[in-house]
Amino acid sequence: QVDAVRVYVNSSSENLQYPVLFVVRQQKGVLSWQVPLIFRGLYQRTYNYQEVSRTLCPTEPTPETRPSDQIIFVDVASMAPFNIAYELLVTRLENFQLETNKAFNFTASPSQPQYFLYKFPQDVDSVIINVVSDAAYPCSVVSVQDIVCPVYDLDHNVEFNGVYQSMTKQAAITVQRKDFPGEQFFVVFVIKPEDYACGGSVPSSIHGNVNRTWNLQRTKNLQVTIVPSINKSVYVQAMFFSFLSFLSFYLGSVVVAFVHYISTGMKLTVPPGSVSIAGSGMMTSSHPISASTPEGSSYGAIDESSSSGGRQLPSPERRPPAASDTDSSVEEESDFDTMPEIESDKNIIRTKVFLYLSDLSRKDRRIVSKKYKIYFWNIITIAVFYALPVIQLVITYQTVVNVTGNQDICYYNFLCAHPLGVLSAFNNILSNVGHMMLGFLFLLIVLRRDILHRRAMEMKDIYTLDYGIPKHFGLFYAMGIALMMEGVLSACYHVCPNYSNFQFDTSFMYMIAGLCMLKLYQTRHPDINASAYSAYASFAVVISLAVLGVVFGKNDMWFWVIFSVIHVLASLALSTQIYYMGRFKIGECYVGMFRRAVMVLYTDCIQQCSRPMYMDRMVLLIVGNLVNWSFAIFGLVYRPRDFASYILGIFICNLLLYLAFYIIMKLRSSEKLLPIPMFCIMATAVVWAAALYFFFQTLSSWEETPAESREKNRPCILLGFFDDHDVWHFLSAAALFFSFLVLLTLDDDLDTVRRDKIPVF
């Protein structure tokens, strides 16, 4: 048991020109202070205290002295030309050494800080220091310092040594034995003279011209408990759990693929009278399709009811399949788009009231496929250039935290932050492994479908092109990469979570939501979907707005006005493009774009109020615009501080709205949902509901001060290693994976349906 001595001094003098100086000399150090003791705050404010109490650095007993003997010299001096009365009291501390799993209560104030000693038990390698208080203020600081004299226990020097946190009602610091060679440390408690560091306001008693305060009552009752942290075996169990949980998805995918292979009897050759459908086995045709197809069923033709009068249109896909998809000599897309007759036919087709998939899948399959592969290669390039600086930055953040000991830089859940190596919260990083593993699994599933499709193409069965949704996998590959990168960047964000790098955690979420909407639109509009360059340029604008929102979106009204205007105008512009099936080029005339939007409202809502020309599209766009305008009004009125999540909410709501519209229209068109997509839809709904429950269990918030954020900290809930947010990571990865599978399998029932029978909506 280590003994310690506490010195209490009091002086009635208020003369700051002649303070009383106290110097305490010990065996290994000197401690000095003055009375009145002066603390400095913001704007040159000063806080003076006439009562000071300090704990002296304990002295280890030597063979020459008895354990209870300590030689201490106290020198008292003043330069005052008159006598000054003071009081000096030296007492022995009975409870200087803290014990494991035993709560200890005490009181501290700015002029009377406290610190205690803790020694590691033999079987404990890591402990968590839990400090709680019933009152949020006064603001305090908890510090862990090595056994060095003097101890830094005043507001102006507590940050000079060790690890420290600001505190209102709760603080928690994880300490490892390996960081203290002596296997012991001091726990220091300092009360700050002002509360602004913890989110409080300046005391009302010093408003105005008064800048000096005497003996401000700022006493705080604290309770400290030191409990053992987890051991190494828990780390191993958590890692096994993380990897095995997601490896089970791989096993399930293999089982499904094997059952599918057995049930469909997939062969490498096509039997007579059958049509090969990639990814769906064989479809037996009720009537063999020959090269002499009747004129009326020619692919790409328009019905007699169409505005073209039933004349035949050129069919770019009806050509000998001599060249492969990878042929470098294939024509570029612009070779077709710039031909006047094709442009004319395109405008004729897209003005039909009832469109079918054959009307919007007329371009050469190889050219369109190459167009969508650009999504995949571009997102890889973006990922590399985006991720490398992010990784470098968060490594710097972690280094700063480790070197300075300032744990207010990063917003962890300190009650469940398990360090490993240089990382302060390894559990928050490990829980992102699901995004990377399931993203890679999705890439393998898409690759399998792609291979089956290529095999069907190699069988020279050209008429397979007339059936089902066109098989373009570039966007699916891009979605898989985006899911993996979301895991990487989320892990980077959780190395040191704070407001300045939160966009790292959300950037690829924007891209995932955007790519999903593009894929859903591409399904029945393969010829008129956005190019990779324009899509990624749009994502770049969104991410730029997110960065500006983080910087200016807190209190600046002008930013919200500009953003709301941009949001509304972008919604109108996109609505015009969708309504006219891409026949109006936004880049050609911005004024004409809005003129066209006004004409739509006039012709479809005034002249033909009973029924617009494109009823389904009009309903979707009206609902979509109402939702987006509601978001714009909400942002303008409430100005949410978490701007990145606000934009993400806009993306997710638009995606869900479009997906719901797509499924409803699919069922209205007498199409059906096969068992696999039905299971994926149900799994997506259930897992997303569970994931969002854990997401809204707020464990920290960089919208507040670090001390206020720690009030939300909670213990681990899974394996003693993962907290609620880690469970959110696990479940959201699974939910995104099932969401991707919904998009991948949603239209498998159409693989045996001719494209001129598949409606467009």
From TrEMBL:
Membrane topology: Multi-pass membrane protein
Keyword field contains Heme: no
Ranges for region Disordered: 286-338
InterPro entries documented for this protein: SID1_TM_fam
Location of the protein in the cell: Membrane
Keyword Membrane: yes
Biased composition (Polar residues): 286-296
One Pfam family this sequence matches: SID-1_RNA_chan
Top-level taxon of the source organism: Eukaryota
Broad class of the protein's primary localization: membrane
Assigned keywords, A-Z: Glycoprotein, Membrane, Signal, Transmembrane, Transmembrane helix
Feature: compositional bias, Acidic residues: 328-338
GO cellular component term of the entry, any: plasma membrane
Transmembrane regions: 234-259, 375-395, 429-447, 475-496, 502-521, 533-552, 558-580, 618-637, 643-664, 676-696, 727-746
GO molecular function: double-stranded RNA binding; RNA transmembrane transporter activity
Family affiliation: Belongs to the SID1 family.
Full protein name: SIDT1 protein
